[in-house]
Each structure stands twice: as C-alpha cells, then as structure tokens.
Amino acid sequence: MTDFVRTKAKAITIILLIVLSLISLSIGAKSFMWSGVLKGEANHLQTLFISRLPRLLSILITGAGLSISGLLMQTITGNKFVSPTTAGTMDWCRLGVLVAILLAGEQSKLLRILVAFIIAFLGNLIYISITQRVQYKSAVMVPLIGLMLGSVVSSLTTFISYMYNIIQNVSSWLQGNFSLVIKGRYELLYIGMPMVVIAYLFAGRFTIAGMGESIATNLGLDYKKTVLLGLLIVSFLTTTIVVTIGSIAFVGLIIPNIVSLYKGDNLRNCLFDTAALGALFLLVCDIIGRVVIYPYEVSISVVVSILGSIIFLILIFARKGKTIKNA
Amino acid sequence: MIRSENLVKSYGEKVVLDNVSLNLPKGKMIAFIGANGAGKSTLISLMSRIVPKTEGCVYIDNMELQQWNNNELAKRISILKQSNHLNIRLTVKELISFGRFPYSKGRLTKKDNEIINQAISFLGLENIQHRYIDELSGGQRQMAYIAMIIAQDTEYVFLDEPLNNLDMRHSVQIMKGLRKLVDEMNKTIMVVIHDINFIAYYSDYIIAMKDGKVVSQGYTNEIITKDVLKEIYGMDIDVQSVNGKPICLYYN
C-alpha cells in the first residue's frame, strides 16, 4: 500500500461517491434528463424525488450501516472473519421478522423492526457467549460457529414459515433488493442513523474492548458493558436494513478488512472511511446490476456476491503473502 | 500501599492460590519468583483485579478492590499480562495513547500528548512509533506494550514476564527503565521474571512462592542465597558475588 493511497484514500472515496451518485441518479428505465430537472419539469422531478433519490439514499445508508456493523463485530470479537452474515445476525433478524408477522400480521413495519431487533440482539448475545466459552479458538472457528448457528436459526425460520404457509413472504427477505425502493418505503432506514453517532462517540472504548478483557479492565473500562453496547448497535443497524431492504452478504465482511489495510483498526480513525467505502462498494454493485442487462436489472445480491467473493479471495491471498514475508 | 489478606483463588476443586497475606513495600522493585505453576501470575492478576478472587481481600491504599471505582483504580494501578495477542491493527503511538484513556477518555489533552511522547522516548521507540504493531518483531511489540503502561502513569505497576521475547539488549534497556521509574519517580513496580539473575541484579525485594503459597520474602540479598533458592526451586544453585551483586549459576 503506497503512502499516496494511505493519505488520499478518504478524498478519493468521497469524490468517487459523489460521481457515482450522480451516475446512479441518471440511469434507469424511465427517461430522465438533468436538464428537465433544472427546468423544473414535473415528470423529471417526480422520477428524481420518488424513485431515483430514495434508491440512492437507501443504497448509501445500507452500505455504510452494514460495513459499520461488520467493523464493530470484528473489533469486539477480535476476529477479521466475523460480520452480520457470518455471525448469523441476519438469520436471527429474519426469524424476528417471521415472529412479528405471525404475531401482528403484515401491517406494522415498526413492530417488525422492534421484534426482529430483540431477537437479533438475543441471537448476538448467544453467539458471543458461545464463542467466549469455546476453549479452542482458531481464527476460523469463531465465524464457523456463527455460520452453524445461523443455519440452524435459518432452517427453523423456514420450518415455521412452511407450517404457516408464508414461505413466500419470508423468502423475500432472503435477498436484498433496491429495485422496489421508492419514496415512503425506505425511510425506516433513517432510524438506524443515531446508532452510527453512538458508535462514533464510543469508538475509543470499542477499540479498547477489542484489545481483550484484561487490557480493557486495566484501562478502567467496563468490558462487558462495552461489548453489550456494541452488540446493541450492530443488532439495531442490521435489523433496520434487513427489514427495509433485505439481507446483503459480504459488505460487512470485506469492507472493514480493506480499510484496515491502509487505516488500521483504531475505530476513531477508520469508522468514517469504512462507512464511506461500504456505501461506495454497494453503489458500484447497484450500478453494475442496473446496466449489464439494461433495461432489466440483475439483483444486487448477485452482483455483491460475485464481486464480494472475488475481493474476499484477493484479500485472503494478500494477507497470506504478507505473513509469509513477515515470517 | 498494596496489602492482601487471606487471598484465595480456586478453579473448582483445584486451589491455585492458598491464603496469601502480604504487605508490599512502597517505592521498590518487587519481584515474584517460583517454579512454573507456583501461583505468581495468578497472585498479581488478583491484586490488579483483572481476575476475580475466590476469597480474601486486596487493599490498594487502604481501600478494598471492590470499593474502588474502576476508572479511578486505573489511574492508581496498571498491569501488563504476559501474552498479548492483539488482533487489531494499531500503530505503536495509538497503542501507547490508549494508556491515557483513564484520564482523558480518548480525547487527548496537551498534557496527555506530552506524557505519550515521554513514554515513547523513554523506551526509544521514536523510529517505530508510526508503524503498525502487527508488523513489528515480538520484542518491539513488547516494548510498545510497556510504553503504554508507562503512559498510564500509575503509582503501582504490575508486569507479568515483561522480558518475554526480548533479547539481552532490550531486556537490560527495559530493566534500567523500570529501575529509573522506581528511583526517580518513586513508583512501586511488581514483576514476575523467570531469569533469576535479572531479579538478583535489579530488584529490591523478593517474594518467593511455591504451590500457591508464599514461602519466603525479604530483601534481595536475603533471598538470593543457596539455602532459600534450594527450598524454592528444589535444585542446587551456586550463588557467587560479582561486583557486589549476587549471580546465580544454575546451569549444572
């Protein structure tokens, strides 16, 4: 990593974010011209404010939210392979959504978020207490426990939804989707924003917690409370995203790892970069998905999975090369 | 002053620390010695509250551990455990800056920055202060952790095997630095070190442990003797005097 990238990464990310945001606003099946917007033509303004802008905003918030969740999870567990997907948080969220639908029908999204949040938080607690109890802790073991737990929860969700014949509603949360986002359908994402502020305020504490319980205690930090707060933030952010957009893999896993390479893991330094790069990554995936078979769309989950797995492999091999060099 | 009363630590049936009552002298370099599994690390972990005790009391400046506010206590005592496997990437300076957390909660003041820079130059880490700790050698990393503890600037300092992974030059540099903290700043430093000759040369006071109990304690020249060492380690150790300091020959 050159010094140029190290120092200019933030500026580059922001410029790319702005450029790609404008591109994202300009593409789509409906005819849309910036000149029309500037002239104040009603149909162009409508396209912008009802469909394009909500879509853009929801992508940015989702990308930032997922990558921050991943960063917090990785810091708390001290494991670079943990994220809301590998820790099973998203599976717990879906179980929560199912429970909410069974309890109160399809109406209230807020109730859905509340129930899903409680269940996701409990799920995270169960996951963390299992990983802390496991004696043999290799780097791969920690996320594997999450994947296994997630699969169990996921099959439970499928089982229950078959029983009540609502499998179709539930599977719509399996894959994240931005093509249905219009004004009035994504605003619940905003209620996750205060969590990002809290994460920033407590950034130093989370980093210390990431150094392990004995160093944290030595520095006068209440380790358990800090971990709990971190899990609360992650659960809430993930829940708002899963309920409004659906689950999206890889973002929470790879983005913090990339930023870590040039910014380190001091949360106070890397939180903003992580959020910005997460938003940028999701935006790129969305644009690709919208142009490859234009005027149709490839689901963003597909693009994210393909791009994400390639980047993930590159990261693994890059790290491997580095450790060999160090040894 | 640090004092313990009937301190007990047990894991299930197994008692690893058995009724330890101690009065640690202030302003001294105190070394804990004993064979592996004698309970040295457990004892300093209990005294520094990072491992919960089973029974007994620990008084830091006449107040029991449980009555202390955890953050206030972090300004009074600090501890560095022997194995620190950090999975997060921090620069040396960032790590050392976290030593100021009990005082500034992450918002560093001018005074904090001065102390951080002092800690860096105290151990001669200027050249590597902006490097990431996962890219350093084991010895450099250990120096960075000790600098963090120095930046924490506490009256009492516990160090669990601070010379682990360090070569002779770094070991001597650390011990001289610790000695300076005791002599010039009147700190009380408690160390667990396995190399008996480092203890014989640098420490003022020794607490010898065996099977979870304190078997003897006293000033260095009282403990570094053939008879006492035989009792602690169960081997014949020849003690010679070189330039007025005891040197142990335990190689045959």
What do you see in this structure?
- The complex is a heterodimer of chains A (327) and B (252).
- Chain A is built from 14 helices and no strands.
- By secondary structure, chain A is mainly alpha-helical.
- Chain A has one domain (3-326): ABC transporter involved in vitamin B12 uptake, BtuC (Orthogonal Bundle).
- Chain A is globular, with a radius of gyration of 20 Å.
- Mean pLDDT of chain A is 87; it is low at 323-327.
- Chain B has one domain (2-249): 3-Layer(aba) Sandwich (Rossmann fold).
- In chain B, 36% of the residues lie in helices and 28% in strands.
- In chain B, a hairpin with a 2-residue loop joins β11 and β12.
- Chain A binds chain B through residues 75, 78-80, 203-205, 207-208, 210-215, 217-222, 260, 264-266, 268-269, 326, and chain B through 45, 48-50, 70-75, 78-81, 84, 86-91, 94, 98-99, 101-102, 105-106, 132, 135, 152.
Which percent range fits the helix content of chain A? over 70%
Query: Could you estimate the helical fraction of the residues of chain B in percent?
Result: 25-40%
* Rg of chain A (C-alpha, Å): 20 Å
Determine and state the CATH class of chain A.
Mainly Alpha
Number of helices of chain A: 14
Walk across the major sheet of chain B and give the strand order: 6-7-8-3-9-10
The third-level CATH topology of chain A is ABC transporter involved in vitamin B12 uptake, BtuC
Average pLDDT of chain B works out at 91
CATH fourth-tier homologous superfamily of chain A: ABC transporter involved in vitamin B12 uptake, BtuC
Structural class of chain B: alpha/beta
Mean pLDDT score of chain A, rounded? Answer: 87
Sketch the major β-sheet of chain B: 6 strands, mixed
| Overall tally of structural domains of chain B | 1
- Oligomeric organization of the protein chains: heterodimer
Largest inter-chain contact set: A-B, 28 and 31 residues
